[in-house]
Fold this protein.
Amino acid sequence: MPTDLHLDGQTRVLHFFAPGRVNLIGDHTDYNGGLVFPAALTMGTYLTVTERFDHFSCGFESDDTPDTFTLGSEQLAQRQHAWVDYPLGVLKEFSDRGWNLLGYDFHYHGDLPIGAALSSSASIEMVTAVALNTLCGEPFTQLELVQMAQHAENAFVGMNCGIMDQFASGFGKKDHAIALDCNTLEYEWVPLEMSGLKFVIANTNKPRELVDSAYNRRRAECNEALEILRRYVSVENLCQLTVPQFEKLSRNLSGNVLRRARHAVSEHARVREAVTALKAGDMARFGQLMNASHASLRDDYAVTCPELDFLVAAAQQHPGVLGSRMTGAGFGGCTVTLIAEERVGEFIRTLGDAYTQRFGHNADFYVAEIGDGAQ
Ligand code: GLA
């Protein structure tokens, strides 16, 4: 619950938090109706909401950028082509449902690396959604807020993302990963019993340009594959196909469309197996599946880059590592590595040095701490 302070007996100040996420396995499956396995981080976005003196506008500022905005009711519905589009998209979701919120200042600050595939955008959307819901007297469920945040990103920001990031930010649970079926939205919290292992995140610090258009193109290629395959089999999405079913049908596809669909189907199968492995405490198998996931994202989905491939290859050769892969959309951003705890320090030093030598800039490393969802 937010802390509700009354300053001078008049101005209300409310505090909210929504986490980023690390996806352990299952990338580019969410919009194909498949399984994903993310976990919410303890890093995320904090939001302080204060009542304004005027009740005709809203103010937006962030510690991470000098761009501040004061917007009246008409401007609130327009894209500003800036970071503020994430909160504005969410405000629009509320106003489309009859809740017009004016007269607040929104102050954001965060400790997630921005645009690094740890869902900084989803955490801004979710922290805004939870805040607005509180201001309105909580008319919406957490799942509705997740869906509104995803729709804000699709319809307002123009990034055709799936539901994984907003869901992970909304439904995170301390020391658990979320096995989410993106077709039915059924989910299960799976305890991360790590027995001497850690997940280490490595940020390539590679500026991610044109990610949205490349991402939307992958999504379109999957839709094209689905349309073709539906001439031969009755499915609603690619991840309803098993690997053997897909192999039989795959002669009807070719080129990139074949490769994209093959990744989606095989990745979905890997997530299913990874969840079973984790529950059985078979971390060695979990690590192998992470490695296979990276290979598929590199070779079939073509969303890795030299920086990600370098960090993953170096990790996979490092003593104590069980598995390593890119996480999130790709094209830059982060890797996640499953490693023996006592090797973490030396791992970070060795990979850090090798990375700087190869690319001329530093990578950042975080030992993942898994926390609760937006509140
Ligand atoms: C981004 C999107 C998600 C998901 C991942 C890839 O993070 O926002 O919906 O598609 O990429 O798994």
